[in-house]
């Protein structure tokens, strides 16, 4: 018989196997299951806190602070409102939350996302659907809206690249296209401290929510 404290193969005991944790504890006290996220475990305060501390461009940006995903989200929502004349509050909220899953999974640069492939996309999509349901949006946005958000995202990325990440305009244009209809002087890209970015995100979220509640016809089948 194997000796005390030994496994049948002669090695030291390592104790019972443990299940791999797939949830993230949030500061709100919620536990968000990354593989099966529930809308009930999603809070806007957690989203704002997380996004304000996730750096765009892997942190390779000018300034004393990282340019956060929270600021990027605000910029994309601002651009969307400028280029989509009939934008409803629901559309604005969907745009503000377009990168919300990154409060949990971080902001991976596009080349790395492509390397990870479908596994990353699957986790991201489940989180995005749960976030949409939590805030009374369609779990899957219409393709026309997704494309409009993507266009605003590319405009934001162009200006971030050229003003913060040291891309020249020709290089940025190859990746993101040249922006049209958005005067660059209207966009403030100065990186903010995390707490200020977090607060700005919450303030804008609350303003859009007020429009959704109070505005006539503010709800839309997006």
TrEMBL record:
Keywords: Hydrolase
Keyword Hydrolase: yes
Region (Disordered): 1-20
Keyword Hydrolase: yes
Top-level taxon of the source organism: Bacteria
GO molecular function: hydrolase activity
Ranges of biased composition (kind: Low complexity): 9-19
Name of the protein this chain belongs to: Metal dependent phosphohydrolase
Organism of this sequence: Nitratireductor pacificus pht-3B
């Amino acid at each position: 018989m194997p000796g005390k404290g030994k496994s049948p193969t002669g090695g030291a005991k390592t104790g019972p196997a443990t299940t791999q944790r797939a949830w993230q504890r949030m500061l709100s006290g919620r536990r968000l299951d990354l593989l099966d996220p529930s809308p009930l475990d999603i809070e806007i305060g957690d989203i704002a806190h997380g996004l304000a501390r996730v750096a765009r461009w892997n942190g390779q940006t000018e300034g004393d602070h990282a340019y956060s995903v929270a600021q990027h989200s605000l910029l994309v929502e601002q651009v969307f409102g400028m280029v989509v004349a009939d934008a409803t509050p629901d559309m604005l909220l969907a745009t503000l939350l377009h990168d919300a899953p990154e409060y949990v999974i971080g902001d991976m640069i596009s080349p790395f996302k492509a390397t990870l492939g479908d596994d990353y996309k699957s986790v991201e999509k489940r989180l995005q659907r749960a976030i949409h349901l939590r805030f009374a949006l369609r779990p899957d946005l219409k393709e026309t809206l997704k494309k409009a958000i993507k266009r605003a995202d590319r405009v934001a990325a162009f200006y971030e690249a050229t003003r913060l990440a040291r891309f020249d305009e020709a290089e940025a244009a190859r990746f993101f296209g040249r922006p049209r209809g958005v005067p660059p002087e209207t966009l403030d890209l100065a990186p903010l401290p995390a707490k200020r970015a977090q607060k700005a995100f919450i303030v804008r979220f609350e303003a859009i929510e007020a429009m959704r509640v109070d505005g006539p016809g503010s709800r839309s089948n997006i």
